[in-house]
Amino acid sequence: MTVHILVVGAGAVGGFYASRFDAERTCVALVCRSNYEAVREGGLQLRTHSFGDYTFQPHEVYASVEAAGAAPHAWDYVIVATKALSMESGAAEFVRPAVGDSTALVLVQNGIDIERPFRAAFPHTPIISAVTVISAALEGPATVTQFRWTRISFGPYVEDLRGTAETDAARALLARGEQGARTMAELLTLGGIKDAEVYDAMHLQMVRWHKLCINASMNVSGVLAGGRGNADMVRDPVLRTHIEACMHEVLDAAPQVFGCALPDKLATPEAILRSTERNTGSLSSMVQDWLAGRPLELEAILGNAVRLAEAHGARMPRLHAMYALLQSAQAQR
User: Which parts of the chain are coiled coil (predicted)?
Assistant: First the structure.
């Protein structure tokens, strides 16, 4: 049976993963806004480190979620690959036209607690949280360049940070999310992604927290350092020391937030820094947004993390300072 997948947000990350779903088992459609005409006419052009150059032609291209919601079939998965710019309760309403009784939401977004607005809007819809490790950029309206890495991790979301579902309804929703996470990983594995992984609810949130080592440490520092790339910064001894200290601050807070240390299999700060040195010639998405004058994922990546850590008795003074500075800088634009 064909799996119908709608990807909302055909930027670098959304476009890349959309192109890697197993073509024989899926019908993949994109919702494009600014690049609608270009993608509709010629598909997405992919220039990738991992798979070479190719063209991805979606089954359908829509100019809006409303248009996708009028499709003659239900969407099994609605993948949200937009920026997490708002934590307000109404922030998830834009996907409602495409969400049916059998739909699962897949959130491919950076940051902490990004699922909360979607759970508030869709209390009976399975939510699958996804964390990526990829360096990619949208270069032109319909050209995606993947510089390095393909890792994507999936897991079901429950409101309890430690993964507990206490009612029959919550357990049923969790089971649907677990199955959806497995399906997502399987379809991408069949499409050539060798590091699509599945975690339980709590461990996926640990993976999400661990990614703050990149998002909250490197990407934010890149903006505050004047728009520098991550590889450039980690070759600067002073900035490397700062970034590594931020990473350890993130990891040191984890036991208080989760009640246990992060899994040993997750990369150490030293390993992340060594890997980052090789990813030359690219800028983080946050630096790209800053240079283009676009709003930043400030609350998702910094504000939520700092507040959550403090609520559990953990202090992250470096991240708190960067949050205050970047919040002020953004307000002055």
Answer: none
Q: What is the DSSP letter of 155?
A: E
Q: In a 3-state reduction of DSSP, which class is residue 260?
A: coil
Contact call for residues 300 and 109 (beta carbons, < 8 A): yes
On the question of pLDDT at 39 being above 70, the answer is yes
Backbone angles phi and psi of 62, in degrees to 5 = -115, 150
Q: Where are the alpha helices (DSSP H) in the chain?
A: 12-18, 36-42, 65-69, 116-121, 168-190, 201-210, 212-214, 220-224, 230-234, 237-258, 269-277, 285-291, 298, 304-311, 317-331
> Looking at residues 45-62, what average pLDDT do you find?
98
Q: Out of 3.30.565.10, 3.40.50.20, 3.40.50.720, 3.90.1150.10, which CATH number does the structure's domain 3-199 have?
A: 3.40.50.720
Q: Domain ranges in the chain?
A: 3-199, 211-331
Q: Tell me the per-residue pLDDT of 58-95, one tens digit each, with 9 for 90 and over.
A: 999 999 999 999 999 999 999 999 999 988 878 899 99
